[in-house]
What we know:
The structure holds two protein chains of two kinds. By secondary structure, chain A is mostly helical. Chain A has helices at about 1-35, 40-60, 65-85, 90-120, 125-130, 135-160, 170-190, 205-210, 230-250, 250-260, 265-270, 275-300, 310-325, 330-345, 355-370; strands at about 215-220, 220-225. Chain A has one domain (about 1-370): Orthogonal Bundle (ABC transporter involved in vitamin B12 uptake, BtuC), CATH 1.10.3470. The model of chain A is unreliable at about 120-125 (pLDDT under 50). Chain A starts with a helix and ends in a 14-residue tail after the last helix. Chain B is of the alpha/beta class. Chain B has a domain at about 1-85 and about 155-235: 3-Layer(aba) Sandwich (Rossmann fold). In chain B, strands 6-7-8-3-9-10 form a six-stranded mixed β-sheet, sandwiched between helices. In chain B, a hairpin with a 2-residue loop joins β9 and β10. The interface between A and B is medium-sized, with 20 and 31 residues.
Amino acid sequence: MIELFLNKLILGIQLGGVYALVAVGYTIVYGVLQFINFAHGDVYMVGAFMGMFVVKGFSEGSISSPVAMVVVLGMILIVAFFVSMRGHWKDPKGAAVRLVGFAVAFALIGTLVKLFLKGGVLLFKPITALAATNVIIGGIVALTVAVAWCAGLGVLIERTAYKPVRGTGRLTALITAIGVSLLIENGGQAVFGSDIHAYSLKDLPGGKQLLTGTLDLNLVGITLSVSKGQLIVLLATTALVLALTYIVRYTKFGKAMRAVAFDRDAAALMGINTDTIIAFTFLLGSGLAGAAGFLNFGLTGYTFDTNTGIMFGLKAFVAAVLGGIGNLYGAVLGGLVLGLAEMFVGGSPFSPYRDAIAFIILIAILLFRPSGLLGKNTVEKV
Amino acid sequence: MLEITDLHIYYGAIRALEGVTLRVDKGEIVTMIGANGAGKTTTIRSISGLVKPKTGTITFEGKPIHKMPPHEILKLGVGQSPEGRRVFANMTVHENLELGAYTILSDRKRVKQGIERAFHLFPRLKERETQLAGTLSGGEQQMLAIGRALMSGPRLLLLDEPSLGLAPFLVQTIFKIIREINQEQGVTVLLVEQNANQALKIASRGYVLETGRVIMEDTASSLLTNAEVRKAYLGE
Lengths: 382, 236
């Protein structure tokens, strides 16, 4: 009985860690812009796909695809850069042009991904060949590609879709976010297809030994077995959340981020380029969502498709609200609470309500503590 | 040093400034006085780039700056302590000062010197160094806002209502320090104040603003003795 409980606890923390990784993206973007990026869950989905392309590329021998991913990432960034550099965003005609530009860029990138996957690039072949021989190197490459891709995608979305409508009201931004979300889901379907996918790092050489089976921990007479894959997810999410916390607390960019979040005008008066910091915030949040997408599917073998981000994104959003939106530690706490709640509900007689628990929590928190567990009702000093 | 020519600014359909022209020479303390809504803060915010003029020009040391974003204007040497202080309440005094030095943050030596200078000007801040800025008193927050604005080593300092909401003896202190910054550190100051009496006492020249226009400009001493100004702004 106690073993079962501890097992659920570990699984809950692991799932919660993945929620936390996505929830921090919602929360830091909300922090700087007071805006919910509803396309965030879809970035997570793209992370799962990018990880899959790399892992399948390695395991099936078409080793060019990871390189292709990197090349296409570069293209995304170049397109984002040029689109974002042109003219003033406030003028509505310019904004319309940019939205069309965004759609075209997306279609172009999608086509390029397909071309690269079919044809392949022979550059850096020795490096990818080396990566394909080892699950650890392969995994790191897959994680890096997923993170880099999603970080680039996040900046692209911010520059092309959100920046043009900044300052035109919350509702505009919200509807734009929903539009971007639909664009990624359906655009993703056009590019990746509507099939259900699954992949696992186990397919890479050495992966079976590393990832199959459980690790048995003996704690004062209680044997606790944890699946190795899930343990790695747990460790990786912990490391990433700690890295993010470090960046936000101690680096120059992190301090600037907190300043922009607190008071954008005052931050600008400090010489902080607020546009750059906002883009950087999207880069961080989206990169972590990409990592979460890869970790949650690449190490567990769960199935996913282009709509996977919808439900998961909503739940991670609930986690962010539960912890107190805008509060980094709150998002982590909210993610953990949500993960544990889902695991324990899933193992109880109420298991059919596993997916509903997130929304029950949302309703409860909005009723009883709308500012979230760690959120504060700030009182301004005059 | 700073030249503003025929500045017009609108907030949507509302006219905030209609043709403000003013100049600040190197080494001066210039003050802008006027009632609420006269356009003083708008003028300051347009100099630092937070609002963009519809027409008119602003040049700093000969360079047009009215189309530049705020962070680039700061790099040219224009620092601002905004109205209402706007310190980062969730960060420590030390972190606030560091953010003031954001553009030179990689130069540890200059940052350290800047912090020492701020502590020299405002010894109170040193006692509060590790305290969150939100827990400071209003006067201490104002000191922090000025100290923070000086961190980047500006040649022109824009001060927006530094005495707002402070106890009378603190007002004295703040004005004394503004003078010190100007005379000992050679920083040119453009000072916006509702406390016209105090502002005119330390300034060399003054502008009187009313509903978005400059209605009077003169040396501070003649404004102080001007009957109209005394009646409208000095409470006589």
